[in-house]
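Hi F.,

I've been meaning to write this up properly since the lab meeting, where we talked about keeping a consistent format for the predictions we share between groups. The idea is simple: the sequence comes first, exactly as it goes in, then the structure tokens exactly as they come out, then a line or two of notes. No screenshots and no reformatting. I'm using this chain as the first example so we have something concrete to point to.
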Amino acid sequence: MTGPQEERGIERRTTMKTLSIALLAVAISFFFINDSTAQGKKRKMPSQEEMMKRWQEAATPGEYHKAMEKFVGMWETSSKTWMGGPDAPPTESKGSCEMKWTMDGRFLQQDFKGEMMGLPFTGFGLTGYDNFKKKYTMFWIDNSGTAMYTGEGTFDGKVMTLWGKMDDPAAGEKDKKIRYVTTVVDNDKHVFQIFDISGSGDKKPVVEITYTRKKL
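Output, unedited:
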């Protein structure tokens, strides 16, 4: 139950968010209008109401975001990494991670802790759904390098497939085509795989991490 003061506070925060979105949409519209005028081009702009509607639709989390709810929680991880190629024995390690919503349900945040080649490994990732592009997207960084990894693709509720690019400093290769696949086994288990398409192909992964929900 919420009291009158709490309800007024929630109403004020909601109003401020709506006002912020409106001001941002107006500012962007002025930018494009001035830009097109400066270049001597005539561009038919939608009305302020239509721009506000489009902006709110793009900014509001919905059913595609809720589809990722099954990943929320505390997880134990078991990792396999094929550093010597897909036919060599994998390096195995254990770890843990927490997945939680951030930015008011717009992105799923992952905080990962484990090992890689006997060294402490920490990673941070964000996964979301871009309402405007109509694609699932991801971002990842970790302490094993200075690169930022991104990907985009689809999720049917069972399998999420994202495509991206990855550099390989050891081989001196840049922008290698990578496929990220997350397969939901059940509510308490899912498997994440990375496939090096330009290297070992899409038959065998170079990284495989099994997530098992921690029992409370």
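Notes:
The beta strands are 73-81, 91-102, 107-116, 119-130, 135-142, 149-155, 159-168, 173-186, 189-196, 207-213.
Helices lie at 4-38, 48-59, 63-66.

If this format works for you, I'll send the rest the same way.

G.
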